[in-house]
Amino acid sequence: MDVHEVIERVLARVKPGEGERKLVDSITRELIKIAEEEIEEFGLDVRPVLVGSIAKDTYLSGDHDVDLFLAFPIDVPLKEVREEGFRLARMIGERLEGYEIGYAEHPYVRARYRGFHVDIVPCYDVKDWREVRTAVDRSILHTRWVIENLGGRNDEVRLLKRFFKGLRAYGSEAYVRGFSGYLAEILVIHYGSFLDVLEKADLMLKQKIIDPARWLRREPEIAMKTVGREIKEDNPLIVLDPVDPRRNVAANLSWERFALFYFGAMRFLKSPSEEFFFPRTAVGDYRAELRRKGTHLVTLLFDPPGLVDDVLLPQIEKSARGIARALELEGFTVLGFDYGGDYIFIEVGELSRPAVRVKRGPHFFTEMGRRFYEKNERTWVEGKDLIAEKPQEPYIVDVIEEILERGNVALGKNVREAIRRADILVDFVPRRLEESAYLFLSREQFRV
């Protein structure tokens, strides 16, 4: 199939139709009106602002997350923005169809309204990067910059977003570490079109630095500091935020997700197909994968604390890495690990080890040798060295419990206690995790 024919067919599926547009416009107007009424009721000097893909008209058909920001004047103290902004957000949420509280840099409200997800977030009404005081303040600047620079290429962004989704490389969240929607918009603006972005995949990696706003000329000292920091972090891309030279828009992008895009672009340009945008769901049996590989799956299930994913998941990743490393030091063969919001997977080569280990000690005729001899029950001599036989837990579950109890393993501080109380399963997962276990064991999620 010709590449342009593929693009036309994909656009027909991802571009919102007239009826959908009218619905989105109607609901966003209603939300703004509700916000304005509550602001007036509170007597606050706050401006309700739509940001994100709906505000920029780069949203995909059926993807209706609304980002409603409550913009306070920059001279309002931060404590007041957090407290009054959160109180206002909750009052707006109470007029919708149920809400819950989310926690990031400061609390915000996640609500539902007529089938739409609505995030209500207090922020500062900033005019440029020098006024930014919280992480969310840039969203207003991002929205404005994209609207001013997109130049009618909205559908090109939609194609790129859907392409990233099809490759499992979309989303900058901690559990994905892929391309964000804002990064997709920047790439289209910078390179020109969906196909241009794909054709520049190799150049992108070699060039490393993308600077759409020319910060390296306008603010060289600040921009170079950002570049230096990101090079040290060994990130695949450095995309200087067009609205803030201190920030790399691609900071969360992992090498694995960039590789999915790199090879996906190569394959698509060679053999265009709708399947790149709408792949078949990977179906497989994790038990069959274990039999095929002759390995074992250890799963830790725990009740996580109530933190947003961007705070919670890095701590779970640290914990998973720490446990995997500790098992390697205990003599087990660790083939990999994965994690989610309430679980850790560790693939190992064996479930048991010998019930004893042999420890080589000092020369038998030294003071240290005498202490070694007195401390150990079963000892013998090899040449000058004392050797001891030390008992150890043979079964991996007992070893993990011992590791966690001893506390000599790196765990995320907010999940430490939850993981220590985890249930440990071997070669079995609950039904809800079967697909995740298959994707992990097959490495399907990063297959190129």
TrEMBL record:
Q: What are the binding positions for CTP in this chain?
A: 53, 56, 142, 161, 170
Q: Which organism is it from?
A: Pyrococcus yayanosii (strain CH1 / JCM 16557)
Q: What family does the Swiss-Prot or TrEMBL record give for this protein?
A: Belongs to the tRNA nucleotidyltransferase/poly(A) polymerase family. Archaeal CCA-adding enzyme subfamily.
Is the keyword ATP-binding assigned to this protein?
A: yes
- Which cofactors, by name? Mg(2+)
- Lineage of producing organism: Archaea, Methanobacteriati, Methanobacteriota, Thermococci, Thermococcales
InterPro entries in alphabetical order:
CAA_C, CCA-adding_arc, CCA_tRNA_nucleotrans_2, NT_2-5OAS_ClassI-CCAase, NT_sf, NuclTrfase_I-like_C, Polymerase_NTP_transf_dom, tRNA_NucTransf2
Q: What is this protein called?
A: CCA-adding enzyme
Binding positions for ATP per the UniProt entry: 53, 56, 142, 161, 170
Boundaries of each Polymerase nucleotidyl transferase domain copy?
A: 34-142
- What GO terms describe the biological role, i.e. biological process, of this protein? RNA repair; tRNA 3'-terminal CCA addition
Question: Anything else of interest in the record?
Answer: A single active site specifically recognizes both ATP and CTP and is responsible for their addition.
**What does this chain do?**
Catalyzes the addition and repair of the essential 3'-terminal CCA sequence in tRNAs without using a nucleic acid template. Adds these three nucleotides in the order of C, C, and A to the tRNA nucleotide-73, using CTP and ATP as substrates and producing inorganic pyrophosphate. tRNA 3'-terminal CCA addition is required both for tRNA processing and repair. Also involved in tRNA surveillance by mediating tandem CCA addition to generate a CCACCA at the 3' terminus of unstable tRNAs. While stable tRNAs receive only 3'-terminal CCA, unstable tRNAs are marked with CCACCA and rapidly degraded.
Record EC number: 2.7.7.72
